[in-house]
Amino acid sequence: MDDAIAQALALIGDSDFILGAAFVWTFILEDLAVVASGLLVEAGRAPMVPMLVVLMTGVLLGDLGLYGAGALAARYPRIARWIGEERVEKGRAFLTKRTIVAVVVSRSTPGARLPTYLAAGFLGISFARFCLAAIPASIFWTFALFYAAYGLGAAASGVIGDAKWVLLALAALALVWIFRR
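Request: output the structure for the sequence above.
Response:
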């Protein structure tokens, strides 16, 4: 089984392909991309510093894109009417006072980032204020998750060897299945 996994990894190609794939995956399943990248770097399949730069760039662009999508949605008055003017104003007041806390907490709370970042853009929270919270939160989260995966990958290699790739693939399938439900 270890030989089959090693052959599959060899088919992936060089580190440039892996770096590009990691960047794209940050927009699809961000946390899984970061964890898989940590494991790939630990296995010697990609260089650490370029991988971290690619991941942090992809994660940050995704975060800014969510804010932008919310801001774009705010251009359509029908959406604000659908939500209700009173709720929009309450949300704006709440999020304006708590932008930094909301962004930092949502960064590490599963399922909270999408609505929080969209709301920040939609409600017209200052882009500078949003960035003040989102940039360090994204960098810290990516760095911490990457190094956790890197460290666990090193520990797992001694215990289960290349079977960690099978476990990662099963985790990816489970996440896709959960998100589709």
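The two ends are 31 Å apart (CA to CA).
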